[in-house]
Amino acid sequence: MVLGACYIFILAPLQAQTVSWPQFRGINSSGVANENEEPPVKFGSEELKLWNIPLSKGCSSPCIWDNRIFLTGFDKDSSLFHMYCINRNNGSILWEKKLQADEIESVHRVSYPANATPVTDGERVIFYLSSYGLLCFDLNGEIEWEMEMPIPESRHGMGTSPAIAGDLLILNCFGHKNDPCLLAIDKYSGEIVWKNSWSFEEGDWADSYSTPVVHEDQVIIYRSADVSAYDIHSGEQQWRFQTGMGDAVCTPVIGDDLLFVTVFSTMGNQTIRAQFPDFEALASERDRNQDNLIDKEELTGFEFLTYPEKGIEVSGVVQAVNWFGFYDQNGNEYIDSTEWTAILEMCEASYLKQGIKALRTDGEGDITLSGFAWSERDQVPHVTSPLFYRDRVYMIKSGGILSCFQAEDGALLYSDRIGAAGAYFASPIAANGKIYFTSRNGIITVVEDGEKLNILAKNDLDEIISATPAIVDNKIYVRTDTNLYAFGLQ
User: Which domains does the chain have, with CATH numbers?
Assistant: First the structure.
């Protein structure tokens, strides 16, 4: 490992009153800015832009404390990781660290090895680079401690971010096939305080891209197959809600003593199910010898998109013949009506399990039945986290489909398109009675909080955006694929 530094400046002491967005999605990953914040509604390259600075690529979001912004990036050509501290007032680099890892983690084709958002408590900032481990610096860029960690074995690369709870740094490692666990680390020394390991068995899903949230004395994490709460002092599991699903992507949010989580199934997704005909229709089109069986040659040419609402770049075309062995359950080299119907039934079963779910957080043990409050299966997003704001819950699905619910009972207030299609990886954020929805195509749509859809503005930055923006000091900070922008009044 090679660690270098440049642009190190000694800064003035922190002000007594600070502005902060201290981790992924702000305080406790809520996505909600302080009540007195009034960020701009209409902004862009020619409107209310205060500054922008080019950065190496990454999906981490701005982490802010007072006049410092912390971010990560990755330079593919040099295989260098960058850890930035940026002056929030003018966009200049205050200090920068560079790290060369011995091995680079494999990630999804639209992602980068620099995914995790840094976390700060106003005295230190901690970076998680899953290709290397954890690094803790003081706010002037002096290293305090570091913890090397094994390269995680995961499907798409680690997507979680660290969180600070009191004296502890909490890190979700349930996405590691090689060492699935939840870690609590002394933020001052880097020593492990407790570790809750999961006995991973062959065939289990190990996907978890979720960031831990804290509720009272519990750490709550969405991992594959369940949402679980752990005692913050001992790490012992307190309760679990079984989801029965594999992709644990979103970060839950808490409001009015309910926890809201979106549980998505690729095969249960309506857009997937719509592409699979019943066997009669399939045979009518493809059963050339009319033996009421489908062989590999006959299935060739049948293709589908796993996430058509995200666009071809993100989704990709799947040739069904490549999944032939999955469809051909008895291994006789043919698909019959029973086997095809079983696939359709599996999709339907997955659909019945998915949805946005509201859970009670005061239970013990298995709360799959007792902790369930309400759910809605349709239009559930794959990646983005829900937003609880002023007694309502919002979720945005790729394709630009926005759904709004009454938080208490799940009553659907509306579900409609906001006119900004494509994939959505950034999660919604809120301030001053307004919700900000950011598409990967670079359009930030601002919607008024309320029981009816009222679109206030569409701001097209004409750049790829995967990171969730941050709001502090009446300004919005947007990290695009290659730039960091600040928008607002001076």
Answer: 2-264+354-487 (2.130.10.10), 270-351 (1.10.238)
Q: CB-based contacts of 294: which residues, under 8 Å, 6+ apart?
A: 282, 283, 286, 287, 334, 335, 336, 340
- Please name the residue that has the structure tokens 């709870």: 165
Share of the chain above pLDDT 90, in %: 72
Which residues neighbour 349 within 8 Å (Cβ) at sequence distance 6 or greater? Answer: 268
What is the residue-wise DSSP string for 41-104?
SS-BTTBSEEEEEE--B--PPPEEETTEEEEEEEETTTTEEEEEEEETTT--EEEEEEEE-SS-
Q: Give the type of residue at 159.
A: G
The Cα 321–Cα 26 span in angstroms is: 45
Cβ(241)–Cβ(223) below 8 Å? no
Mean pLDDT of 324-328: 91
Report the range of poorest mean pLDDT among 52-66, 200-214, 356-370: 200-214
pLDDT at 100 over 60: yes
Residue at 184: amino acid letter: A
- Report the alpha-carbon distance of residue 253 to residue 190 in Å, rounded: 27
Q: What is the mean pLDDT of residues 292-299?
A: 94
Q: Which of 464, 490, 489, 460 is nearest to 479 (CA)?
A: 464
Nearest-5° angle of CA 183, CA 198, CA 208? 70
